[in-house]
Amino acid sequence: MSTESKVRAVTTLRLKEMKDRGEKISMITSYDYSMATIVDGAGMDVILVGDSAANVMAGHETTLPITLDQMIYHAQSVVRGVNRALVVCDMPFGTYQGDSQAALDSAVRIMKETGADAVKMEGGAEILDSIKRILTAGIPVMGHLGLTPQSIHKFGTYTVRAKEEAEAKKLMDDAKLLEEAGCFAIVLEKIPAQLAKEVTESLSIPTIGIGAGGGTDGQVLVIHDMLGINKGFSPRFLRRYANLHEIMTEAVSHYIEDVKSCDFPNQNEQY
Ligand code: KIV
User: Fold this and answer.
1) Residue bearing the CA closest to ligand 1, atom 2
2) Per-residue pLDDT tens over the stretch 145-166
3) Between 3.40.50.300, 1.10.10.10, 2.30.30.30, 3.20.20.60, what CATH number should domain 3-240 receive?
4) Most buried residue, 47, 133, 250, 257, by most Cβ within 10 Å?
5) Per-residue H/E/C for 74-105
C-alpha cells in the first residue's frame, strides 16, 4: 500500500472522541522522515509539519519566508515516516490570506502531493472565506488563534496575546466561528491559561495549547525546542525533555578528535 493511500489510526474523529472522554491529545512538530519515524513510533497522536520549519530547519527569524513548495517537501518527508499519527501540514504565509480560490488551490496541492491528513491555518474571521472553501472540498482544517507567528509584523512582539478584554472576546468569537465553519480542532498559542480553559469548555471540538496552560484538550511543542536542540530559546511555557545540543556537540567533537588522532577508523571499521 502506498503512503498516500494509508488511512492512519488517528483520525479527526478520534481526536473528538478523545476530547469527549477527557483523554489529552499529544502533538509535536516534525519536518523530516527520520524524526517523524521516531515520533510516530513513540505513539504521538498528531504530527504537525509546522511552518516553524522556517526557523528551526532554515534559520529564518520568522515563519514568513517559507514557501508552499518547501512545506510540501517537508510534509512529503514526514508522511513517509508515519503509520499511526494524524499528519497536519501548515499552510504557509501568503497562500490563504487573500483569494479563497487561491487558498483552495494551495490546500489541494498539499493534500495531493504530500499525503497529509489536514491543513492548519492561522487566524479567525479575517480568513473565514478561505477556511470554508477548503472545508467544502473535504479537506480537514485545524485553526490557530492567539499568538499567530505569521502576523508577527502586526503584533511587533512574541509576548502573550489576548490579555486585554477586547482581544480575549475576539478570540472567543473567532473560536466559535471556526467551530461553526467545521474546523476539527484549534491550536491556542500563548494566551492566558484561564482564557484557554474557557475557550476549551465552550467548544465541542478539541483545543491544542502551546503556552496556554493545562486546561486545553491537548498540548503541542516544537520538537527542536523540547529536545533541547535550540539552546537560545527558553520561554516559560517550554519544558525541555533532553539536552540534545550538548549531547550532539559532544558526539561530534569526539568524532573530530578521533579523525584527527587517526583513532577512527580502526581495523574493525574497514574492509
Ligand atoms: O509552526 C509551528 O510549529 C506551529 C506550532 C507552534 C503550533 O504552528
Assistant:
1) 50
2) 999 999 999 999 999 999 999 9
3) 3.20.20.60
4) 47
5) HHHHHHHCCCCCEEEEECCCCCCCCCHHHHHH
